[in-house]
Write a structure and sequence with these properties.
By secondary structure, the protein is mostly helical. 39% of the residues lie in helices and 6% in strands. It has one domain.
Length: 95
């Protein structure tokens, strides 16, 4: 193995040698019949329904200190920026 290529540190030989996969279900006709849910002839979509007002992805340039402030709060920092901008827009509209 070349020096500059790191090893991943797993036992792939042992994994590759494993031939028995009892935990995997057999993919028969009954399995595929349950894959999609229909109401009559209409396919019922699963998951979150589409939003009436989806958010729009944009590119926004912020000062480093502002970005650091919001990111320091942990996950959800983009939502917090959105909330702060919404409050500012409401104040501007009310004033």
């Amino acid at each position: 193995m070349p020096r500059n290529k790191p090893t991943i540190g797993s036992d792939l030989e042992r994994v590759d040698a494993h031939e028995e996969y009892d935990e995997a279900p057999e993919l028969d006709e009954r399995y595929f019949e349950r894959a999609d849910l229909y109401h009559g002839d209409k396919l019922i979509r699963r998951g979150r329904p589409p939003s009436a007002a989806p958010k729009e992805a944009i590119k926004l340039r912020l000062d480093p200190d502002v970005l650091e402030y919001f990111r320091s709060g942990g996950p959800g920092w983009q939502t917090r920026i959105n909330d702060a901008l919404r409050r500012a827009a409401r104040l501007k509209k009310a004033g």
